[in-house]
From TrEMBL:
This is Helix-turn-helix domain-containing protein. It comes from Bradyrhizobium pachyrhizi. Signal peptide: none annotated. InterPro entries: Homeodomain-like_sf, HTH_AraC, RmlC-like_jellyroll, RmlC_Cupin_sf. Gene3D superfamilies: Homeodomain-like (1.10.10.60), Jelly Rolls (2.60.120.10). One of its GO terms (molecular function) is DNA-binding transcription factor activity. Residues 161-258 form the HTH araC/xylS-type domain. CDD domains: cupin_NimR-like_N (cd06124). Keywords: DNA-binding, Repressor, Transcription, Transcription regulation. Transmembrane segments: none annotated. The keyword Transcription applies. PANTHER family: HTH-TYPE TRANSCRIPTIONAL REGULATOR NIMR.
Amino acid sequence: MSLELSLRKFDAKKLKSPAIAMRVEVSDHKGEGPLQRHSQGQLVLALKGGVTCEVANSIWMVPPTCAVWVPGGMMHSIRATANARICFLFVKPGAAALPVECCTLSISPLIRELIQHLADLTQEFTIDSPAGRLVGVLLEQLVLMPIERLHLPMPQDRRIRKIAEMLSEDPADRSTFPTWASRVAMNERSLSRLMHRETGLSFGRWRRQLHLIVALRELSAGATVQEVSGALGYESVTAFITMFKKALGKPPGKYFADMQQSRW
């Protein structure tokens, strides 16, 4: 079943327990869920492959051992690489003291296993049942998880949005800042001020954050460091590794090895 069809068929309005989970297997083609909004909060957990969420004018990456929390009432959409496996946890409003803003949460092995266990249940359960008590433990643990800063702010001004969309389509484009200013008919100073006002970042930092988000998504889906480096337009693999290490404190190989180890 496609990601879009799975999300459209799932009726979270019938949620009786404080939380309920579902698992989705994406086909051998990239999947994109519908633009949606529901009253329940939604936790998006990537078990395999690369998954991103677009929420509140930002793109949020779902890396290994993390999940994106989308509070209830927020319009959002979800994209996944081919053959991705995703777990969704829907949480009733007020069931847990979770963040009121969208964020990326670190996820412990215990929480990961509890969510997958809930996704395997085929019958309704009450709060005082064994499954209901597990939900209580899950939510208690979830509110303790630290927040990670893995998102890309998306500008709303049409000129900056045009640049963002072009770079998102072709992240290997290494055009200079003056060239981008010329493409949107702005002088460099005005574009710089507008970029910072719209995103809180300079153009260079925004593009590096885009590269980091793309790199995490593609590496999570199984691409090699060499492939990702080339796709992002880096002159050498070393230059790409340097960017990655500066952003996340570790080179890609160690980052994903540590993520894999922390699952167990």
